Amino acid sequence: MEETKSEEVTPTEVAQPTVVTPVKGKKNYTIPVILIILLIGAVGYIGYDKWQTSVQERELEVYTLGAEYGYEFRLLEIFNEGLNCEEPININNGSLEINLIAIECLNVPPA
Q1: Where does residue 82 rank: exposed (0-12), middle (13-18), buried (19+ CB within 10 A)?
Q2: Number of domains composing the chain
Q3: Backbone angles phi, psi at 84, to 5 degrees
Q4: 78 and 89 Cβ atoms separated by less than 8 Å
Q5: 111 inside domain
Q6: The overall pTM is greater than 0.90
Q7: 101 lies in which domain range?
Q8: Residue by residue, what is the 3-state secondary structure of the chain?
Q9: 32-86 per-position pLDDT tens digit
Q10: 5 in a domain, yes or no?
């Protein structure tokens, strides 16, 4: 008959940690997934910032065009009022006040 040897286990052998080796063919995708998520977030943030800047630039352009139109319109009104020769045009800027009248309205004989 064959004798079987049984291996004896000592307490020091049991207490030692076991090393887990990765299974071949299975890869760890944690770091690439985190990097891709961060890249998507960064691209989204930059894209949103550029879009918001372009919207603000368009709004500023419309505001500027409106202000220019308002100034031009008011100057035309002043010119037209001055040419009516009805009364002087009073222009008030808070602390400054002047009355304008067109030279054509003075009825001064030429010298």
Answers
A1: middle
A2: 1
A3: -70, -25
A4: yes
A5: no
A6: no
A7: 31-105
A8: CCCCCCCCCCHHHHHCCCCCCCCCCCCCCHHHHHHHHHHHHHHHHHHHHHHHHHHHHHHHHHHHHHHHHHHHHHHHHHHHHHHHCCCCEEEEECCEEEEECCHHHCCCCCC
A9: 999 999 999 999 999 999 999 999 999 999 999 999 999 999 889 888 888 888 8
A10: no
